[in-house]
Amino acid sequence: MNFKVGDEVVVIAGSNKGKTGKIIKTLRSDNKVVVEGVNIVKKHTRETANSTGGIIEMEAPINASNVMIVDPKTKKRTRIGHTTNKNGKKIRITKKSNAELD
Questions:
Q1: Is 64 helix (H, G, I), strand (E, B) or coil?
Q2: How far is CA 80 from the centre of its chain?
Q3: pLDDT tens-place string over residues 3-59
Q4: Which of 45, 51, 60, 101 qualifies as a cystine partner to 92, CB 3.0-4.6 A?
Q5: What is the C-alpha to C-alpha distance for residues 33 and 25, in angstroms, rounded to an integer?
Q6: Is there a domain that residue 3 lies in?
Q7: How far is 28 from 36, CA to CA, in rounded Å?
Q8: How far apart are CA 81 and CA 101, in angstroms?
Q9: What is the rounded CA–CA span in Å between residue 47 and residue 45?
Q10: Is the dihedral of CA 48, 37, 69, 12 positive or negative?
């Protein structure tokens, strides 16, 4: 999986198609990501000593194959490639504009 926390992504499949957001969490073992404001589900929680009970809305994980990175230059979805910089460190780049990702 080529995604990191903080990457700006767009959903390309499913009921949330077209929505964009930042990655909050990556679940590498399940090949899933949690995107801010996407795939909102309602969770029923029991009252505890620390919190009140009720229905809360939270983001659920979606498959990493259903999201693509947003190119910082063109603001369109793109694929991710890998290359090495001058120091010999492996970096991620976008395929459309060869922009370096953090």
A1: helix
A2: 13
A3: 999 999 999 999 999 999 999 999 999 999 999 999 999 999 999 999 999 999 999
A4: 101
A5: 6
A6: no
A7: 17
A8: 10
A9: 7
A10: positive
Confidence label for 102 from pLDDT (cuts 50, 70 and 90)? confident
The Cα–Cα gap between 94 and 45 comes to 41
In the numeric block, which tokens belong to residue 49? 């000593």
What DSSP element (H or E) covers 35? strand 32-35
Residue 25 bridge partners (DSSP): 34
Tell whether 102 is covered by a domain: no
Residue with tokens 């290359």, as numbered in its chain: 83
Q: Do 42 and 57 form a contact (C-beta atoms < 8 A)? A: yes
What whole-number distance in Å separates Cα of residue 89 and Cα of residue 84? Answer: 5
CATH classification at residue 29: 2.30.30.30
Q: pTM of the predicted model, to two decimals?
A: 0.86
Q: Is the residue at 101 inside a domain? A: no
